[in-house]
Amino acid sequence: MKAFIISSLLFTGILSNCFAQNTWNVASIPAELKEKAHAVIRKSETIFTVKNLGEATEKNHKVITILDEQGLQYASMTLFYSKLEKVNNFEGVLYDSNGEKVKKVKKDDIHDGSAVGNGTLFGDNRYKYAEFKYAIFPFTVEFTTETTNKNLLFYPMWFPQEDEENVAVEQSSLKIQMPANLPLRYKSINGLAEPTLENIAESKSYTWQVKNLQVYENELYSPKWTRYGKGVLTAPNEFEVEGFKGSMKTWKDLGEFDNILGKGRDVLPENVQQEVKQLVANISDPSLKVKKIYEYLQAKTRYISIQLGIGGWQPFEASYVAEKGYGDCKALSNYTKALLKSVGIESFYASIRGGSNERDIHPDFPSQQFNHVIVCVPMKSDTIWLECTSQDNAFGYLSDFTSDRYALLSTPEGGKLVRTPVYKAKDNQQNRNIKVALAEDGNATVVAVTEYTGLLSDDYSDIKNLSSREEQQKHLYKRINIPSFEVSNFSIQDEKKRIPTATVKLDLNVRKCASKSGTRLFLTPNLMSAINTVPPALDKPRQTEVVLKMALTETDSVTYQLPKNATLEFKPEGIKFENRFGTYQSEFQVKDGSLLYIRKLVRNQGKFPPESYAELIEYYKKVSKADRTQVVLKL
């Protein structure tokens, strides 16, 4: 009997071990989750445990099956840490397709490096990185990490599919454990179910969970994932970072915390105060004073990232910037405020979510959602915004890095949430004037002058100010929309106005500008602005609204000097149409051996219902067809 019990126990242990080894067998993944997937998140579990106002631990357990080569990016793990974030544990395991263990991450396999970039002078940010180099598909990786966090400005933001295309989710969960005396605020997004609540001793836990999410395919012109993916934002009411206590219960409270961090840090050296006062002594217009001080800032300082001080959120003193001549966005913004204050002009420190393709913040959920700082200067008849990190920005102009989004002003009364300027179609223009000398063989010499304004000028101003002439030419070759050409000469100029401009002049030799067939030349007059691509049709109903992010106006005036013996055999009629997405018009004029082509396109900015996508396709089809309209010449 005793032997039978021992045998049974041994058998049970072997069976249990086999089951453990085969938990991640790829065959157990539901077939619908593998459809169109490059990877499947088998299990993702995050447990965020708040110990007090200023400390929390975060445990993450993630298991991902890599189905093919396009999913290899998920075979690695990067864990960032700093003085305020300590890594307690970092483990990794590789399994084959049957769920059998192949390899464990060893200590020597984990790369520990600085996360400070070339543009950062000071910073304590570091990272640990491990990667499984394995190519017998499919296979599974498992990572287990734990960190201690003393920067509780930030609580988890959880989106189980992580804005990744072609990744399915078998199961994923977020659990936040709070002390009973500390409330948790959260905002569920896009239909995510309410959390499961549990009271245990002196704590309360909130658990969100999803299962069996099939892959999604990103739709063109869709909103950011944080606007349509299932997820949750979380935040405390009260928090503490390195002895500084604050609240984010309201935007007013959070702005007040920035005031606390900046208190006493706006003192300028006496010589700088006198220099700035002398600089504006003969200027009576307040806005011109601001302009003069902004130009002083640009001439005297440069941007260098400094990731230190209250988790990287406290600005260095204005006196430090005055002495060193550099600073990060916080330090330079604080310094600019101090310069303006010294001449009696009030301004506000403005936290913002910077980035050309960044998501905007959720205005109905006060929390630390920002990554950048600029300055707002309120005037009687205007509001001036200053990007203090740029030596080339036009005064009062915000590029697509910070325009058209929310900013949190730190006013004497606390935080105030406002919108930054929106640049409209009249601001963002591409005005092109082209002279073409067309030869009988269809080749041509071209002089094209294009003025870009507003957001459309950004790239060309950057090219001019940040690139060598050789690099500028390479950029231009990538942007010129002509099948076969050579650039014989070019120039780029920019003008720093409130709506800045960049002017590009091109001298081109164009091969087969017109196609020759016998005694005829077939000419497409729209030489450089033709829209050749049309959004693809969908094979299923669209799920997300259509978002056109930037309004713009394009005008083209193209004059063709025709060959001497050429006569016009066919001239098309002008075209004009309009719908909710924009307007289009073109016309053709013939005079004294020349053909003049005039085109104007206006694209509207906005958000449109999902069903409007079919209408957008038809709009672009009409534009593309009109842009390809041909003229026939007889030689």
Automatic annotation (TrEMBL):
<keyword id="KW-0732">Signal</keyword>
<feature type="signal peptide">
    <location>
        <begin position="1"/>
        <end position="20"/>
    </location>
</feature>
<feature type="domain" description="DUF3857">
    <location>
        <begin position="54"/>
        <end position="214"/>
    </location>
</feature>
<protein>
    <submittedName>
        <fullName>DUF3857 domain-containing protein</fullName>
    </submittedName>
</protein>
<dbReference type="Pfam" id="PF01841">
    <property type="entry name" value="Transglut_core"/>
</dbReference>
<dbReference type="Pfam" id="PF12969">
    <property type="entry name" value="DUF3857"/>
</dbReference>
<feature type="domain" description="Transglutaminase-like">
    <location>
        <begin position="277"/>
        <end position="355"/>
    </location>
</feature>
<dbReference type="InterPro" id="IPR038765">
    <property type="entry name" value="Papain-like_cys_pep_sf"/>
</dbReference>
<dbReference type="InterPro" id="IPR002931">
    <property type="entry name" value="Transglutaminase-like"/>
</dbReference>
<dbReference type="InterPro" id="IPR024618">
    <property type="entry name" value="DUF3857"/>
</dbReference>
